[in-house]
Amino acid sequence: MVDFFKKKAKNSKDDILSGLTVALALVPEAVAFAFVAGVDPLVGLYAAFMIGLITSVFGGRPGMISGATGAMAVVLVSLVKEGNEMGMAMATPVENMGLNYLFATIVLTGVIQFLAGVFKFGKFVRLIPHPVMMGFVNGLAIVIFLSQLGMFTEKIAGEAVWLHGTELYTMIGLVMLTMAIMFFLPKLTSKIPAALTGIVVVSAIVIFGGLDVSTVGSFIRDGGGSGLKGGLPTFQSQLFNMVPLNWETITFVLPYACILAAIGLIESLMTLNLLDEITNSRGNGNRECMAQGAANIVTGFFGGMGGCAMIGQSLINVKSGGRGRLSGIVAALTLLAFILFAASYIEMVPIAALVGVMFMVVIGTFAWSSFRILNKIPKSDAFVLILVSGLTVIFDLAIAVLVGVIVSALVFSWENARRIRARKSMKEDGTKVYEIWGPLFFGSITTFMNKFDVANDPESVEIDFIESRVSDHSGIEAISNLVKKYENAGKTIKLKHLSEDCIKLLHRADDHLRTVIIRDIDDPRYYVVTDKVKIE
């Protein structure tokens, strides 16, 4: 019992310290994504707080961090722009109407995500092949790395210019110091969170050393924001008055909501899957869908820009020891405390410290083993891995994963379509026997039909499916059509070793087929994927 309480106390300590680290890392990310979407930084920070808190409490993966994300922010750019244009075109022009459309879209996005969880669509993440998962991880690591390079620039006359001279060397030195602390400190002790220690040490050096470097505060001001200081999120009552509930609004909002819902669920479920592998545990995808949906509904009504799981912050959390729900709750509440009480102090944190933390996340995220196995795995898997990595960088996660799954499915179908074989032999009574090997499905039916020589076969033919498996309705139709070809040629055909489900479906296709099927005690048992109507 004593050991149990000691373990709980240690886990709680790790969760709290890890949550504090994540909260610091969330600030520049949420602010940056708000700028990308073209909204005030507080809109991004409120989203990070509300989504992070709700998903930490009700989500399907303890330790996973959610908030405002770049993948969704990119889509919101055109939404806000078009919404503003529609607002100005109204009979009574409305400025910043795009923000109201944004909130309405996020609410609808949440509804779609919640329904996805209700109808248990979360389980489909298990269909994502390992090469796609590895490509996603590598691509995301590259995206995180490239996003941090922007921190090595400064705004001059509205243009981003690379740092140079002393400023650049100071920035690099502070980044390297943060990374060194995160690398070596765990080798000395595991009781102190390395990421939080790195941020605190580098911040102290900058503040007490009077170094002139970019900070969270200067980053916000450079982007056009006024600061982190704000109040509690408030209910956006103007939504019901400002956004007209008509067909034009629905046709404008719905496509964006569907895209955002898909991006949010794919990124969240992929992150959940990755953390499952790291922690050797299993999350609940359907519960996560419902939690993400509920969080976006709330954040839409209370002035947030929406979001989903954040792989970078989730990895920081897990690698810092945060494995429970408490870590995400602490991160969200700490972020709110920053907004309400400690904005001036958080604005003093140097960007270099946060960049160093993110660079260590990149190193820990990238699947370096992929270089070693590229020449050992099938070429198709290697192609999918590289393809998904590239598409993640060029486009976004949702497109990369969807394309990767589609390509993997096509490769799988093609490979299985080539495996169907027919071994031919003759019985003493002159019956020709075709022993079918391999799966019979939509991709292999053409090859299957080409195995038979209806015109030159003898009067009696037997097809044995003992080493085959009829997988779908296309296979059923192929068998039915083959029987008709032989019968139209005036020949006798018999079918052996079909499963009970397959036989029932053949009977439904043509009751006459009962006469050509030979039942045996060693008939296989499997179901055919068709329209799910059970034949009694």
TrEMBL record:
Source superkingdom: Bacteria
UniProt xrefs under InterPro entries: Membrane-Transporter-like (IPR052706), SLC26A/SulP_dom (IPR011547), STAS_dom (IPR002645), STAS_dom_sf (IPR036513)
Protein location: Membrane
Secretion signal span: none
Main location as per UniProt: membrane
Keywords of this entry: Membrane, Transmembrane, Transmembrane helix
Membrane disposition: Multi-pass membrane protein
Species whose genome carries this gene: Marinifilum caeruleilacunae
Regions crossing the membrane: 42-59, 101-119, 131-148, 168-185, 192-211, 253-275, 295-316, 328-346, 351-371, 383-414
Protein name according to UniProt: SulP family inorganic anion transporter
Cited Pfam families: STAS, Sulfate_transp
Domain named STAS: residues: 421-509
Metal-binding keyword on record: no
